[in-house]
Sequence to fold (730 residues):
Amino acid sequence: MKILNCPLNGPRNISEFTYGGEYHPMPDSMGSSQEAWVEYVFFPENPAGMVTEWWMHTATAFWFLADRNTITDEILRTYRLQDAGKYAHDKDV
Amino acid sequence: MSSESSPPVLRRSQLYHWHQQQGAAFAMTGSTLRVLRYPDEQAPALSLTDLSTHPRVGFKGVGTRQWLRQLAIDMPQTPNCAARQPDGSLLARLSEHEHLLLDNLAADAPLPAELLRRWELEQPSQCYALPRADSHSWMILAGADAAAMMSSLCAVDLRPQQFADGSIAQTSVARTNTIVIRDDNHGLRYHLLCDASTALYLWNILLESVTAFGGQATGLEHLL
Amino acid sequence: MPLSLLRRGLQKKEHLKHQFSVNRSLKKHYDVVIIGAGGHGLATAYYLSRYHGISNIAVLEKSYMGGGNTARNTAVIRSNYLTEEGVSFYRESLKLYKNLSNEFDYNIMYENRGQLTLAHNDAAIRSFRWRAEVNQHLGVKSELVDRQTISELAPQLNLDEEVRYPIMAGLWHADGATARHDAVAWGYARGACSRGVELHQLTEVQAVQVSSGTAREVHTNRGKISCGCVVQAVAGNSSVVAAMAGIRLPIHSYPLQAMVTQPYKPLLNPHLSSPQLHVYTHQTSRGEFVIGGGSDPYPLYNTRSTLDMKESLAAGIVELLPFLAQAKILRQWAGTTDMTPDYSPIMGLSPVDNYYLDAGWGTWGFKATPISGKCMAELVATGRVPDLIKPFELDRFYRFQQVNEAGATAASH
Fold:
């Protein structure tokens, strides 16, 4: 079984986790157009390659981010939301 | 209930009918029923016991730790660790802020009721009480073979040399979400807390494995 | 034909005629460039060349013809969907399928088996009633059946009540069918190539040059082509190819794993599907049981296998057909499902003027092959979006007019 490393609970079987979609900053709730919201809600990048995603450790309902390669299925790293900025430009490792 | 601020306690376990079918001898404390023993019990080396009617209470919110510190409660330093309290109750830290307090085996520790009473009085900022009596079922697995038995049901390595006393794993046991807490007391013991709706399922699965290791379901007397 | 087999066997040299165009160099310009030589791309080329007199067409395929999801689906043909738009569309596809062998003069091994979807709870029965009503209203054979009828339709099915999810009722779709999926691609390719369409395998599209909102050139590993228009029909890679033309799509691509057992004597006629157990099966004409299920739990562009998905398929199928517990698994594979938010396809116009979309085929692509080809051909030839696919245009997401078929797919995802 594939292992995902939860920042709170440590390495666990991937079956203990729930995929939560791509990570994108939310549009400004006041000023954004309907189109921007539609694209935020419905239109993922769905890239073939590195992507930053939300994952949840189901047993603890703990949400975190993972950088994953969607071609090789390798998980590059997992981290808490507050560390998102640290890795934003570092997905080509 | 003895007083308004005692943690709400289940009167009957989710496994009550199972216990009844086995001809269990119950003890009644207040209006709460606890299994003392089953007729066929033979002091097994590996035992599974239902603690679902034991008192327990949770607290969460970013103000939780500050409030517990004010009360001079011995707190686990990191998430997924548990700390024994002087009265025998066990404080389990489930996340950054969420804590779960489990009563001792005799169900006579004053701290659960005391904490809830203080919480109601003081209304600490950003700390919320979590009723846990009917959200979770609670079982305890005791015996030297417990780790070996769990290895076929749970992917986390629970062997004593890997999973120290006081460690917590919130994980999947027999494909159902379960909180596993190692809490040695007369030998190797694991508390298992699962969603109340999955209690009978998990109990039957655990019991099948316990039986395979020559163990039995026991009442409280066996543990005390 | 045993006699011709004997004659061929005695011949020293075999002179086989190629059924498809091969070894051609790319021309500088094609009126229509179709990306993807799967069922949908080839069908589009076929209908364009046969019914619209357009044959200056290149069908580009990065791998080999029909080797993507056309080869990987579980060959289920049905039209018992939930929405009026969905049912009408798949109904027309089924009609075309019924006559496809005659249309091609080439056997696609179409078999009308019927499809039985199983309800294990009251909510499923309610939704089956709803689907049956919608289906019947639109002329699709679909009815709610009881356990007695189920036992007659599929005597091998485990109707025991002492199981995890006892079978309570079924949705019987007498029109349900299957066909040899490769033959569908081959039939379309043969028909298109005989009318002048060029099939270029091992020709990978690497870029689409768009200027002033119009696709001008398609860049491939074999050179550049100027194009009158482009049709994208690359199920499993829709987002990646569309991005080359600067188009974003509301798609997540998930693997879907399937497997096949050893052959058995014929014992199961209809397709069986259990949305609750996330499993569906039918016995092929070779005797094997094809077993499919829900998509993987997270997106991936990779057709690797995982033990947990295989375990879940096996657990589900053994509940339905307990004798399969003894079966040996002969093959397993995966396809990539381009899942849309509403479980309906994305067809028609795109933000680029002459770039047409045939995408978002999730788990419903094979059954829609003929009608998609026909509608896409009509769109390319006339520039007008056929009424049948109007509800599926990309723009529906901006208008919040999704066509929700989430409840009518074989396995919820």
